[in-house]
Amino acid sequence: FGLGLAVALLCGPLSGSGVGLDLGGWQHDGETQSQGHFVHAWDPAAFGDPAAFVAGCERYFAQIKASRKAPGTTEIRIPGERAAATRRLQRQNGIEVLAATWTKLGGYARELGLAMPKTA
To answer: How far is CA 9 from CA 3, 22, 23, 31, 53, in A?
Structure first.
């Protein structure tokens, strides 16, 4: 709860945007009044050796992945691993696009005088 509250306050009041019910349609009926974002970037080198930071992260990830798995689970994934695997497959095999979406994109391309890419 604490982390969620902190994120809400950073993305809402700190950025001059809404939070909670101010987000309208996201949490209740009505229009969204405002939605803010907060970005904070840290340079690990400002705190020490970047290579040591990476090594510490990798060591912790390995500990997490070596943890006891829930019944029926074959792997513990770190956030981002599934997306990275999907990205690799899509770069290798292409991205599946629903036929209805492809048709709609074709209409937009024609309106703009653009050629659609060839499909497999």
So the answer is: 10, 12, 13, 20, 28
